[in-house]
Give the backbone structure.
Amino acid sequence: MKKLTLLGLALAGALCAQDRLTLPFRDPNAPRKLNVDLFLGSVTVKGYEGRDAIIEYSGSDGFRGRRGAPEPPPAGMHRIGGGREPDISEDNNVITVKGGLWNLTGDLTIQVPVETSVTVKTMTGKSVTIDNISGEIEANNMNGEVNVTNASGSVVANSMNGKVVVSLNKVTPGKNMSFTTMNGTVDVTLPADTKATLKMRADNGDIYSDFDVTLGPRTAPEVKEEKTKSGRVRQRVVRAGTQQGTINGGGAEMQFTTFNGRILIHKK
Amino acid sequence: MTCEETKQLFADYWSDGLNGEDEIKLQEHLGACEGCRKEAERLGALWRDLGALPAEQPGPGLRSRFYDSLAAFRSGADDRFSQPSHRSPAKQMVWQIAAGIALLLAGVGAGYGLRPNQSPELSQLREEVANMRQLVALSLLQQQSASERLRGVSYALRAEPNDSEVLGALLDTVKRDSNVNVRLAAVDALHPFASSPATRNGILQALTKQDAPLVQVALIDLLVDLKIKQAEPELRQLLQNAGDAGVRQRAEWALENLQ
């Protein structure tokens, strides 16, 4: 295992020359997993008909880019290397791509076989995009948006200051899912026959769906007593924070939460 | 024999796995090459030290939890023979447990309706249901996949309100889980445990450590719902330091409502 890790690192060195690296999953028949953990930079993961992970990166959305426009290459020259390479390793069919504060990478594009479980985390990338993946998907982008398209399996997605857009072609029955953001729209598309129990909460927004949602009993508004700033007690009608509902008779739980934004649940 | 070839034989040499010919070649090389001899001495000492390390002892809870899991799995596997299915055994197990819980609950409910006095069998049954839920919740909360941990939180939500082991696991999840969505779900699942003092302390601790605004807001709402008045210092701190405007507003609202 150690040898493979070293091999991965050695191969990562090869990025200097071409910004593109092909790393095989050791066992093509066992379940595959891709872990991406970045501090800066956008991430795109795409499923393709192949067996290896193809990792490409560019320095464009990096640290310098945040402070001003990235420096263009000098006339007539192209980039042949530099110090901002991510750490890449393979261990037990899990490929890990890491870029911390000290090795700020740029934008990453990673192609993996369609049937791969994918976990992506980035702090300040513009976007996390995951397309055509079948497996367990986890996406977390602190300051940008999350886009998951053509997915099948299950998705757990979170953003802090961006929208979360997820579209599933197929849902693994019985898998819990969750789509949350503090500031942004939660926009989820599910196959028409999905059986799910929905828990929805939009503190400062509305919830829309074209599914036939059977709303749960806790949706009825209740009257609460509140104290005002001056100390008087007043009554207020409060909608229960979390609305529950089921589609197609109910199933595994799906959580939809946004503080500032609205929730859209589309039927595919 | 080159230095590289020699080093590849070290492990076999120390574990007595070399044939005579290789061993002689190795000895010859070590005699002639000082670099390899030094490395063999250094690594050999490390090898022996590693062998002398005591074996890791499992914790006290592990044994019983393993056998409980095994028993639950077996009962699931037995049923599977009479009703073939293409589901994986692990999934089958959880479904079996879920179905079992549903049936037992129905039984317990019917029992309550039919008898004015609770019999010892019924309370035993109730306890078994609770144990089963606890087991499923605790083991799911340990999973690597966020989706499975979310399922663990759903199970925890249905545990007995005095189940301190499930409460402990939930509080741990709120404080330490790497996934924001799982932490958020775990905060919602704390509601049924409101009466425990551990819940109150745990929420306050979690609030100071929390960096995700969405979870901060959920914790603030929980503080207000449970009327935890001693939260004032933590709330004032959030009011001043929180990076997100929504969190600051919510903290202000909570301070007004908790007075």
